[in-house]
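sry for the spam today, last one i promise. struct tokens for design, 96 residues
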């Protein structure tokens, strides 16, 4: 989430949108709003996104999916990546 927030801050809001989708945790039970606030996460976040897993073939958490304006999946990654910021920036810049 913190890495995605950096990307959210980097790109113009009218050209790229980042949305955090929580598929596992209960926002009340796990106090996710507090988690987001404490980490200065300002990008939109939604909860109860379990349907996303089957729609986009998500098999691990965290997962990242880049979808263009036409709905085409440009990039996916499950789990952690040390090169996430660079990889995502390259995909976005190459498709703007």
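last one done:
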């Amino acid at each position: 989430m913190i890495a995605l927030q950096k990307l959210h801050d980097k790109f113009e809001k009218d050209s790229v949108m980042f949305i955090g989708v929580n598929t596992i945790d209960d926002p009340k039970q796990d106090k996710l709003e507090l988690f987001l606030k404490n980490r200065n996460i300002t990008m939109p976040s939604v909860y109860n996104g379990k349907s996303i897993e089957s729609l986009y073939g998500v098999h691990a958490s965290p997962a990242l999916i880049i979808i263009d304006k036409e709905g085409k999946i440009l990039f996916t990654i499950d789990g952690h990546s040390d090169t996430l910021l660079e990889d995502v920036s390259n995909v976005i810049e190459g498709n703007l």
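The longest strand covers residues 73-78. ok im logging off now
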